[in-house]
Design goal:
It contains 13 helices and 18 strands. With 492 residues, it is α/β, with parallel strands linked by helices. Bound molecules: S-adenosylmethionine (SAM). One of its GO terms (molecular function) is RNA binding.
Length: 492
């Protein structure tokens, strides 16, 4: 069992042989966590963080196994991999994230100065000052069991059982993958653990094999669990058909439904059970439809007093209460200088556009996942919103066609919330090309890498007046992990 974090735990973790290597550079987290452990955070450390930029490694947190880590339990190793800040008090976690966002914004400022896009900060600013305010990070109202969506893999457990449901440690390349149950993870709600446990029991009873390596055969793959704040639960089981006939697959579907409705899995009280047959790692509803085997087709969630329908493959922020803080923040930033049109780029189920709709004349939203666009249209009428238009397709295709004719009296605000891949440069070019777009609110859960490229494109010498950052607000959506959302306002 995980005990509450103490500072000496941090030192224990650091001396236990786990080397923290993050997207921010291997030394970054080590330096920062050590520093915090000694209560010695000073602006000098920002200097070290800045130095760490030059040898940054991109990508998610990875952990390198160093001698001595065998002393940790499998559960602790998993917790260190998935929720690497779990040993720290929440206050310390927020402090770390604030430093991290500061570092990212310094990198952005450096990049703009280096490329001659913006002027050097004035003389009274030191190298570690930003030329625009970075507001204090907004905490998540909920810190434990906050996830509304979890995906559990199937692989070989510590005891060698290949029908183990949980999270991976190790790598395929290192041939040392071990699947550990996520029961002890601080961000995991009870219901998700329950469905994962039942699914494990079900596949252990099933006569067919799990699918671990696609080319080696087997069928049962990961399960995704979605829950909402009133306790409704949706489970989506992914299944590799290999060479089974439709009739043979039907037998397994029936067994799955029976287990979760009349068998031991009934304890999960699933409101929806979906099944997706796919031979690809990730597969859209268009490529391989989500088959509703039992219950309701959608899950609903309430956000800031509005109701939202969510399809199995539609995006929804993973921490609903923190998402309310994020959307409230966007609303406040928008209110600062009201324009009459909002462009909601990468709109998912339409949450941002619908929340802002009462403040503007018109919302135009663009989203690539068709089911999410259907949800968004449904959500607008569910909330009596009539001034939103939802367009299905890639933003880089739709916006260049839309922008030349888009007119507005008071100006346009673009709210962009892309996935980790960032926005295509054609989206930025299109936004830059229309002078009516006066403000752009960029929301990113990964404000380095591709998003950094976008920041540069927004401020660089593309045709059209450049933007400049005016304020940034971090919002913690993922307690115990190193991630948070960063909202940056650009204006021109
Ligand atoms: C981080 S989510 C944000 C969704 C929404 N703003 C919200 O708060 O729920 C990113 C969304 O961008 C969509 N997306 C990804 N690539 C896209 C593209 N090229 N054009 C339009 N939408 C895209 C994804 O399907 C996803 O719904």
């Amino acid at each position: 069992m995980i005990i509450m974090p103490m500072l000496h735990d941090v030192q224990r973790v650091l001396s236990s042989g786990w080397k923290y290597v993050s997207h921010c550079g291997g030394s970054l987290w080590r330096i920062t966590i050590c520093t915090l452990a000694k209560n010695e955070v000073t602006s000098g450390h920002v200097q070290k963080l800045r130095k760490g930029l030059s040898n940054r490694k991109k990508g998610n947190i990875i952990h390198q196994k160093l001698p001595g880590n065998e002393k940790l339990s499998w559960e602790d190793r998993l917790a260190d991999a998935v929720t690497p800040l779990w040993h720290l008090s929440y206050g310390k976690q927020l402090h770390l994230k604030q430093l991290q966002q500061h570092r990212i914004l310094l990198e952005m400022s450096d990049l703009l100065v280096k490329d001659g896009i913006s002027r050097r900060p004035s003389l009274h600013l030191s190298r570690d000052d930003l030329s625009f305010p970075l507001m204090p990070i907004k905490p998540s109202p909920v810190r434990y069991g906050y996830r509304n969506k979890s995906t559990f893999s199937v692989n070989v457990g510590v005891d060698g059982n290949p029908k183990t449901v949980g999270f991976y440690l190790g790598s395929g390349k290192g041939k040392n993958i071990v699947c550990i149950s996520g029961n002890h993870l601080l961000n995991m709600p009870v219901k998700h653990k329950m469905v994962a446990k039942c699914y494990e029991e079900f596949i252990r009873l099933s006569p067919v094999d799990p699918c671990i390596l696609f080319h080696e055969g087997g069928h049962w793959r990961e399960v995704t669990v979605r829950t909402n704040s009133v306790g409704n639960t949706m489970a989506i089981v992914h299944f590799h058909p290999q060479k089974l006939t439709e009739m043979e697959i039907c037998v397994h579907k029936r067994a799955l439904v029976d287990y979760f409705t009349n068998g031991p899995g009934a304890v999960c009280a699933l409101d929806s059970l979906y099944f997706q047959e796919t031979s690809m790692t990730r597969c859209s509803n268009e490529d391989s439809p989500y088959q509703l085997l039992h219950g309701k087709s959608h899950i609903y969630e309430e956000v800031l007093g509005r109701k939202f329908r969510i399809s199995p493959d539609a995006f929804f922020q993973v921490n609903t209460e923190a998402a309310e803080v994020l959307y409230h923040t966007v609303g406040e930033l928008y209110l600062d200088r009201g324009q009459d049109t909002v462009l909601d780029v990468c709109s998912g189920t339409g949450v941002i556009g619908i929340i802002l709709s009462s403040k503007v004349k018109r919302v135009i939203a663009i989203e690539v996942v068709e089911q999410a666009v259907k949800d968004a249209k449904h959500n607008a009428s569910l909330n009596d919103v009539f001034n939103c238009e939802f367009l299905a397709g890639k933003a880089e295709v739709i916006l260049p066609q839309l922008m030349p004719s888009l007119k507005s009296e008071l100006g346009v605000t673009a709210v962009v919330n892309p996935s980790r891949a960032g926005l295509h440069y054609r989206v930025i070019r299109a936004l830059r090309s229309n002078p009516a777009v006066r403000r752009l609110i960029y929301i990113s859960c990964k404000p380095w890498g591709e998003a950094m490229r976008n920041f540069k494109e927004l401020c660089c010498s593309f045709p059209g007046e450049p933007f400049r950052p005016t304020v940034a607000v971090p919002v913690d959506m993922f307690p115990h992990t190193t991630h948070c959302e960063l909202v940056i306002v650009f204006e021109r």
